[in-house]
């Protein structure tokens, strides 16, 4: 269970990104965060694993206080929180395998990892994870030789290597076309259902939100302006969606049914 | 530019067109200034002043000592009529155009017009042609003079090989002067070459008061025991042991042996300046020498020296690159804006580092080598110092730009996995840095080897050092060998570095 209490973030230049945000995510949820660009979605996700240091407030993950954790404790918490990014954030010139193995950095012997040495079982696990996403044959390629959809799968594989209980996804499909968007979100949905990993995901498109979310929060200027269940959001019209979400919102044509493993 | 254009529209001429014209007749450009076209007017005044200044300078030089304006002009005309005609016509055209332009500028309707500046540029080029002493006629007619050195430089391989030789010699003593007893003829030994002179005493050639040569005694030389049908050189050895080859009829003395290995040769005793202190009988020697090739061809000295110096050159480049890389890494961190933007102190360090780097980089390695030669003395080390200095500045800039170009995304992603700071650097920062670092370092090595071939010209060691020596000795073949090796090394290096970089980037 993830509890976020009175979270506020003020950047050094005075920008207030989050204002007193509180919400609770029970285990196994697929929580979608919606809101305009600049409404604080990315900051919120990054405050949960403290890539961004919150100014005020508390984040509790399974009872442990993330906001108070010191360096070693923080790393132990972080390794239980997977994260995927809009621009995938792979090390482009490293191999796919190296990128996936990086997900184990929180677990392995620090000295060995500096020489890029990983235990054999981690390598096996990496291959198995890549196989799960149908890209095991790309393992030796450089990450930037892969297509966008493949790169995001590598990103998910890296996050899964952490054996996370929580997955943060910062606009994971914003740089992908609608078909690939469904594929990637399909993977997240499977992770969510089969591995019981809680997912926090920011999205832009109402169709996708309606299709995947089990609950939704809407952010506007750093404040929560909407909370809804999956049922609420399915009954939402475009007009309502635009009111919370702003004029940027667009409905994409419904994608094809989700393909399984390719 | 756009605000200026708008200002120009509002500008009014201070004087009517005829006055502007008149002012420009007196002082070229003045009319334009009064017409409100200040920049144009100043440009015209400046151009006129420099053209007149340059013309006076060149005309006085051409006239060479003549005084007075008209005599100088006429003398110049007689020496370079075509130049003087072109310059005069252009200047008159420019002057007339100048005051017509003043009229036009003062009329508000239409301004500008770049035609007058075309004339000014033409004048500068005409003067420049004379100042830089361009002589197309000479370049064409004297071209054959360049053919010999050029062909030797282009195909120097005749000088690349040489042979060991074995000398076969025999000497005969000659007494110079009227005192002393004539030396006996050498004893003939079977199987060894033998030389006998008839007579064995005589007088050297001398110079009379009119510097005319008074021929010395004619020596009748007979040789035997030499190899048959072989060129035999006749040498003269004075009492000090100095060996030289006399000339007769403008040719070095030499003779062919007959089928029995014998020859006869008539030698006029050569001119030899002896010190006034040398009194009494002097025993000179005449020597016959055959040289014979022994064994196969071997590398000549220029070839061997060139190869040695080429190796030295490549190593100079490598050393300078190594030192450059080592020193530029810390410098590059100080010169990376994203790392130094923390406080005003770090920003000050950033600006100081950048400024020093820009200054060091803008000074050519050749000039650094001149300084380094004074600093550490002639030789390859001076070259290494010069190239290192330049490399640090150049690589520091390139590396710092690579650091500035790092993608923060992967760093964030690796941090999110629970990695330590050190792990983040190793797994997210270093992989991004290595390709540009390798690429720039190889590129720099390439540049450094190329530069070290010329850095020897100013005493920095390497192949350039001997190249300039060969050129000064007019040994075009040896110079050609050095040029060939430089060209070969540089092109191989070019290819190799391109291949390596293609793999990393």
Describe this structure in words.
The complex is a heterodimer of chains A (262) and B (505). Chain A starts with a strand and ends in a 17-residue tail after the last helix. Chain A contains 10 helices and 10 strands. Chain A has a domain at 1-80 and 203-256: Rossmann fold, CATH 3.40.50.300. Chain A has helices at residues 41-48, 71-78, 96-101, 110-114, 120-132, 148-160, 178-194, 206-212, 230-234, 238-245, and strands at 2-10, 16-25, 30-35, 56-61, 64-65, 81-84, 166-169, 198-202, 215-220, 223-229. With 505 residues, chain B is an alpha+beta fold. Chain B folds into 3 domains: 2-134, no CATH class; 161-298, Immunoglobulin-like; 301-504, MetI-like fold, CATH 1.10.3720. In chain B, strands 1, 3, 7, 8, 11 and 13 form a 6-stranded mixed β-sheet that branches. The longest helix of chain B is centred in the last third of the chain and has 35 residues, at 421-455. Chain B is flat. The two termini of chain B are 41 Å apart. The chains are: A alpha/beta (262), B alpha+beta (505). The A-B interface holds A 49, 51, 75-79, 81-83, 85, 87-94, 98, 102-107, 110, 113-114, 116, 155, 158-159, 161-162, 168 and B 407, 409-410, 412-420, 422-423, 426-428, 431-432, 434-435.
Please state how the strands of the largest beta sheet of chain A are arranged side by side: 6-7-8-3-9-10
Strand tally of chain B, please? 13
Unreliable stretches covering 5 or more consecutive residues of chain B: 1-8
Shape of chain A: globular
Principal-axis shape of chain B: flat
Oligomerization category of the chains in this entry: heterodimer
Query: What is the average of the pLDDT values of chain B?
Result: 87
If you consult CATH, what is the topology of the largest domain in chain B? MetI-like fold
Q: Give the class-level CATH name of the domain at 1-80 and 203-256 in chain A.
A: Alpha Beta
Q: What gyration radius of chain B follows from the Cα positions, in whole Å?
A: 38 Å
Strand content of chain B: 5-15%
CATH architecture heading of the largest domain in chain B: Orthogonal Bundle
CATH superfamily of the domain at 1-80 and 203-256 in chain A: P-loop containing nucleotide triphosphate hydrolases
Helix content of chain A: 25-40%
The first-to-last residue Cα distance of chain A is: 33 Å
SS content category of chain B: alpha+beta
In CATH, the homologous superfamily of the largest domain in chain B goes by the name: MetI-like
| Weakly predicted, low-confidence segments of chain A | 251-262
Greatest chain-chain contact: A-B, 36 and 21 residues
